[in-house]
Every structure is written in C-alpha cells, then in structure tokens.
Amino acid sequence: MAYEIEDIRTGQEIFYYLLEHHELSEEVQEQLFRGYAENERIQNLVKSQGDAALCDIERYGDVIYLIPREDNTFLGYSKGQLKQALCKSNGTDKDYYLSQFVILILLVEFYDGQGATSKTRDYMRVGELQNSISAQLKEGVRRMGEEEEEKEGIAFSNMAEAYEALRSDEKGSRARTTKEGFLYNILIFLQKQGLIEYVEEDEMIKTTKKLDQFMDWNLLNQNHFQRVKSVLEKCKAGIGIV
Q1: Which alpha helices (H) appear in 144-178, and where do they start and end?
Q2: Angle at 113 between CA 61 and CA 195, to 5 degrees
Q3: Is 92 helix (H, G, I), strand (E, B) or coil?
Q4: Which pTM does this prediction carry?
Q5: CB 41 within 8 Å of CB 79
Q6: Are 131 and 109 a contacting pair, CB within 8 Å?
Q7: Per-residue pLDDT reduced to its tens digit, 188-234
Q8: 206 Cβ contact partners less than 8 Å away, ≥ 6 residues apart
C-alpha cells in the first residue's frame, strides 16, 4: 500500500498527540479525529507506530486512545512503580496485590451489566467500597484454604493480612499506613489516570467516560467477555483473582 506524504505527516501528528495526551477526541481535535476515522491508510500508519512503541491504538466511540501494553514500562507502569505509587513506603508484594484487589472490587461494584452497557450504577460512597473490600476478603479467606490458594494462585490470606495491618482512622487520615489513607491514594491515582472522579468533600466515587468506554468496548467484546466475566463472578463470590 502506497502512502502519500500528507498521510504520513497526519499519522505522525496523530501519534505524537496521543503520546502527549493519551487520548484524542472528536470534540477537541475534530480534524485529526476524522483524519484517523475516515482514512484507513492513516489508521494503519498510527497503529504501526503504536505497535513499535508497544502500545495499542483503539477507537472507542468518539475517542481514540493510546493504551500501553503490560510490558511497556516506559509509557505505562512497572510493578515496582505501581507499588511505589499505591502502597506505603516499605510496601511488600502483599500490599501491592491488595491494591490491585481494591481496584478490581471497584470495577465489580460499577460494572456487571449484561445489556447495552456494562455499567450498573452512577456512583458509590467510599465507605461502601471499604465495606465491600472487607467483606470480600473475609469471604475469600473463609472459602479458600492454603492448598486451594496455592492451586488457584490466589493470595487471599496474604491480602487480608496486609489489610488488617493497616490502622483505622475515623478522622480520614491520608497516611498510607491507614485503611482510609491506603484507599484514598488508590482513588487519587485512578483519578489522575482519568478513570474516576473522586469528590472528596462528599466521599463519592464516579467513573469517567474513559473508563465506561473501556469497560463496554472490552467487557462486551466477545474476544474478552468470557475472561472478564469469570473474574467478575469470582470476585462477587468472594473468590477474587490477583
């Protein structure tokens, strides 16, 4: 397939914009968006650049996203970087797995629909999320013994131990050594990634259009549906996966 110089220039401009902003919407950049959406050659050029940079370029509705792959620690996060961002200064793997479990529980609470959209609620309170985390950890420990944990690769007892090691502070401490602070820093991190809106004064969590689109286009995509459904169902049953 031959490419015209104008297509190459537009493709490079789109990819650079995605590198800088991680998303390109029709509302903000209509000309670039239409250049991508209406020209297969430009799409191929941008996706090729994304592939070389270990990223996927996906269009969900009226927004194009740059999504770093799991092994992309330059544009994404390594396990060590995530542990530093989400956990206390001397955080262990137990703390890291607990942080990932918290995020998974948040997704379970918001997305479990089988209709036109996977989203089932508009908001939830922080206290409700905290209660759900405690309940799921206790249920997981109750259901699974040491042998079952090893067989399934699930660290419920370790996560529960890490969670109980965090102090409780009714004053709403922001310290990562408290349950409230640990959860607060995870929510702030997700907000910085553009995935949730955290209204601190009301202790309220809302999801963003970005997360809603990602969950719908992936959760309802049959290539991923069965895998995601299995994770969500196991979490709801207190048999979460880390």
Answers
A1: 146-152, 156-164
A2: 50
A3: coil
A4: 0.80
A5: no
A6: no
A7: 999 999 999 999 999 999 999 999 988 887 655 545 555 555 554 55
A8: 122, 123, 196, 197, 198, 199
